[in-house]
TrEMBL record:
Naturally occurring in which organism (per UniProt): Erythrobacter neustonensis
GO MF, any single term: 3-hydroxybutyrate dehydrogenase activity
GO biological process: monocarboxylic acid metabolic process
InterPro entries in the cross-refs: 3-OHbutyrate_DH, NAD(P)-bd_dom_sf, Sc_DH/Rdtase_CS, SDR, SDR_fam
Signal peptide extent: none
Family matches, as Gene3D superfamilies: NAD(P)-binding Rossmann-like Domain (3.40.50.720)
Protein's name in the database: 3-hydroxybutyrate dehydrogenase
Family: Belongs to the short-chain dehydrogenases/reductases (SDR) family.
Length: 250
């Protein structure tokens, strides 16, 4: 379905981004992966996916510009890289706030503005932003993440309107809790911030949000990304698709 399409997926060395990269490659897209991690494992991934890799650190706007130059025109851009930090606002480190806003929000602006001219020239494009249930609702102790994801949802709607007549769609996918390193790594800080055990955080904080009482899988999110890249989804733009086990229905 995606033969002759080039796709750049940021933050695709792990978790949701990797599942999206795998799913787009399975549909025949030429995939470019990005993210941090062990170079040997990344080389193996590239081999598995027939992909190329650009290791730009997306906290660095110069590195993003260099990546977009090196990669060249893409048909599909998935802005997925993200990070989390959990702390009460008065203890929230200012440098963590800056980093979360830079990675989860501003990086999507920098990649999008570089990718749009090529998409416009072709009259076809798909921009998918991995937002979060936290693009629609809040949780305490996640001020930077919630602010960034709400911002990403607003950015998505704005760019969808700007590009609506160019054959380019721009959408968010908003997962609830997906079992990836990002979620696993926030458990210790949440235990500290709330004075809870690991089991209490898993059941009373994370899964308490999701009426299904199940974590979402990275593959669930990837399937939605594939659909949004299809021609059948040409009329879907400016949307924010929840895949959250019912979390934001409450
Ligand atoms: P993850 O930690 O498994 O993956 C994050 C990816 O981003 C990795 O490839 C990592 O190397 C990359 N990355 C981190 N810092 C980077 C940097 N400075 N430059 C370039 N790449 C960098 O996390 P995940 O859960 O797969 O998260 C992916 C996206 O999904 C994030 O935007 C996250 O906010 C969002 N999300 C996750 C969940 C969840 O429950 N896991 C829920 C909703 C939204």
């Amino acid at each position: 379905m995606l033969k002759n399409r080039r796709a750049l997926i940021t933050g695709s060395t792990s978790g949701i981004g990797l599942a999206i990269a795998r799913a787009l490659a399975a549909e025949g897209a030429e995939v470019i992966i990005n993210g941090l991690g062990d170079q040997g494992q990344i080389a193996t991934l590239c081999e598995e996916l027939g992909a190329t890799y650009n290791g730009a650190n997306l906290l660095d706007t110069g590195a993003i510009a260099a990546m977009m130059d090196a990669v060249g025109p893409v048909d599909i851009l998935v802005n997925n890289a993200g990070m989390q930090h959990v702390a009460p606002v008065e203890e929230f480190p200012a440098e963590k706030w800056d980093a979360i806003l830079a990675l989860n929000l501003s990086a999507a602006f920098h990649t999008t503005r570089a990718a749009v001219p090529g998409m416009k020239a072709k009259g076809w494009g798909r921009i998918i932003n991995t937002a979060s249930a936290h693009s629609q609702v809040a949780s305490p102790f996640k001020s930077a993440y919630v602010a960034a994801k709400h911002g990403l949802a607003g950015f998505t709607k704005t760019i969808a309107l700007e590009l609506a007549t160019h054959g380019i769609t721009v959408n968010c996918i908003s997962p609830g809790y997906v079992w990836t390193p990002l979620v696993e790594n926030q458990i210790p800080d949440t235990m500290a911030a709330r004075g809870m055990t690991r089991e209490q955080v898993m059941n009373d904080i994370l899964l308490a949000k999701q009426p299904t009482k199940q974590f979402i899988t990275p593959e669930d999110v990837a399937a939605m990304a594939v659909f949004l890249c299809s021609d059948a989804a040409r009329g879907i733009t400016g949307a924010n698709y929840a895949i959250d086990g019912g979390w934001t229905a409450e």
